[in-house]
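Recap slide: Orotidine 5'-phosphate decarboxylase, sequence and predicted structure.
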Amino acid sequence: MERFEPMVAIDVDTKQAALKLFDELANDTDHTPIVKIGMELYYAFGPGIVREAKQRGFKIFLDLKLYDIPNTVKRAMTAIGKMGVSFVTTHAAGGSEMLQAAKTGLAEGAKAAGCPMPKLLAITELTSIDDRILHEEQHVDFSLIEAVQNYAQLSEKNGLDGVVCSAQEVKAIREVTGPDFLCVTPGIRPNLQVHDDQKRVVTPQQARELGSNGIVVGRPITLAEDPVSAYQTIRQAFMEGEN
Ligand code: C5P
């Protein structure tokens, strides 16, 4: 099973704090973490923050969760494809036409810039959505897990590489998708007592056992006194199954 290095969510609100984390993580010369740049950082500091991360040798997960009409998503993905990032996200809720447009745009951009094709991951249901919101606000009759399975299948059918999902959803997703379909899972805590605002958390080792291909870890690394050592411990538990 393909397993990626832990993806470190750089959720900070100043460029200085982001660069400090990049510099600290770059000190680990044995491993190269994947850094996840999300909307907060990207909207504040633009593509320059991606270049800063690239210069330090990181692979980049650009988590911008694109969701718009197919043509707009295609054009935005073309721009992203030229940036040399490794993972990109879009919402499965945009439908098959939008998902295909996302992939086409990404491929065109990557080809034009001579960059490798990034892995394209879908957001299924946000983990902030629960059954009540699904039924009462979105008028969806299916259960949450059925909706997640449906979106995972839709994503796979339209050529996406995988989904971002909770580790607890991996098993259900694997029931309806092929063996190479990727499940990347946030909500990771080395110490289950400290879960911040995450509702359901698992340890890196549990994520490994549940079949995650990659884990997204933010605060347990970014707020640690020694982010490199926190990264290394989490990495070892996830990549090698040791605590
Ligand atoms: O700090 P923490 O480890 O909770 O950060 C998790 C990261 O994963 C954040 O960037 C958050 O936005 C992201 N994420 C999540 N749950 C999802 C999708 C993304 O926590 N369902």
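The mean pLDDT is 95.
The beta strands are 7-9, 34-38, 59-66, 87-91, 119-123, 162-164, 182-185, 214-217.
(End of recap.)
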